[in-house]
Amino acid sequence: MVERTAVIAALDAIIDPVSGQGLVAAGLVQGLVVADDRAGFALEVDRSQAAAYAPVRDAAEAALKALPGMARVSVILTAEAKPAAAPRTAGLSKAAVDQGRAKARVATDRPAHVRRVLAVASGKGGVGKSTVALNLAAALAARGLSVGILDADVYGPSLPTMLGISGQPAYEDGAIVPHVAHGLKAMSVGLLTKMDDAMIWRGPMASQAITQMLTQTRWGTEEAPLDVLVVDLPPGTGDVQLTLIQKTPLDGAVIVSTPQEVALADARRAHTLFQRVNVPTLGLIENMSGSVFGQGGAKAEAERLSIPFLGDMPLDAALREGGDAGRPPVSVDPLGDIAERFAVIAGRIVAALDL
Ligand SMILES: Nc1ncnc2c1ncn2[C@@H]1O[C@H](COP(=O)(O)OP(=O)(O)OP(=O)(O)O)[C@@H](O)[C@H]1O
């Protein structure tokens, strides 16, 4: 059991190179969570200084790991835009000073230059939501669309493994430059923190990290906007998911379920959640169809809920192996059965989102 006070003291012993104060005193430590043998927080710095703070982040992580009883530490370096401090001036009028001051960013969760945002959700974990999200993104890209994928699954970010990407993304002109793999622009909370750190995010911190990845990543430009951003949501229908979908400007959602009765009950809850926030559920996808879980359950459920049934995906070793190896089957075997099934689903999504 690690004491919160010990964590704060350790962080305050690290000096912020800019203000010369301890990290806590300098106001850089946000959303600190201390739970049993784990701790995590976001180190919130000005965008232009994100790179310079990487060593500070490492020092903070090392200091917390050195505390007795600490097993896991997770520090995310964020780059919140802050209005520049008023420059020291001699004799300039306030109006003149204000002229030279950076304008505060207007807070919006809508990512710039992104035409549509599509959520992929599941009522419970382990149904293959991330696998479906990635291969669906690849199928949309195969239609000539420019596609991004945001792994918002803070509890188990799997996109880096499934796409074979690693390493913190670069910052350029105050924006996060997404990795590009298999033709997809990709961003994952797993790239901002150490992969093997347990995710201990709680509601506000999780949604803050996701909002930043959503709005501060350069998904598209004015000349070349992103057609669709696929957001792989954390599994479940709890508070974290609700906060997220309330804060994220979603144009539609698809729900992934296995054919099993319990999984379908969870899918129903996911649909209800989207209804509550007026996000259209574009349909249900049955994954691991024909497996021990049965077949056809999702189609019947979609009819009951009066939402479209988008298609089914069999239990297929290529999907699992491709995921483990960073080679999504839709990209590496574009003529195969899996790619064909995802192409049909992608076609339905394109129509529903008017892409
Ligand atoms: N149709 C399929 N056939 C074979 N394996 C699959 C299929 N769909 C998913 N898998 C495998 O099942 C495991 C869980 O899949 P995935 O990580 O996509 O699920 P998830 O619902 O996103 O999980 P979590 O909720 O934990 O994030 C992975 O090993 C994946 O490769």
TrEMBL record:
One GO term (biological process): iron-sulfur cluster assembly
Q: Which domain of life is it from?
A: Bacteria
Which GO terms of the molecular function aspect are on file? 4 iron, 4 sulfur cluster binding; ATP binding; ATP hydrolysis activity; ATP-dependent FeS chaperone activity; metal ion binding
Q: Which residues form the MIP18 family-like domain?
A: 5-75
A Pfam family (short name) is ParA
Keywords, comma-separated and alphabetical: ATP-binding, Hydrolase, Iron, Iron-sulfur, Metal-binding, Nucleotide-binding
Quote the record's binding site residues for ATP.
Answer: G123, K124, G125, G126, V127, G128, K129, S130
Note the coiled coil stretches, chain numbering. Answer: none
**Gene3D superfamilies reported for this sequence:** Fe-S cluster assembly (FSCA) (3.30.300.130), P-loop containing nucleotide triphosphate hydrolases (3.40.50.300)
InterPro entries registered for this protein in UniProt: FSCA_dom_sf (IPR034904), MIP18-like (IPR002744), Mrp/NBP35_ATP-bd (IPR019591), NUBPL-like (IPR044304), P-loop_NTPase (IPR027417), YlxH/NBP35 (IPR033756)
Where are the bilayer-spanning segments?
A: none
Subunit organization? Homodimer.
Query: What function does this protein fulfil?
Result: Binds and transfers iron-sulfur (Fe-S) clusters to target apoproteins. Can hydrolyze ATP.
Family as reported in the entry's similarity comment: Belongs to the Mrp/NBP35 ATP-binding proteins family.
Protein name according to UniProt: Iron-sulfur cluster carrier protein
Native organism is Brevundimonas intermedia
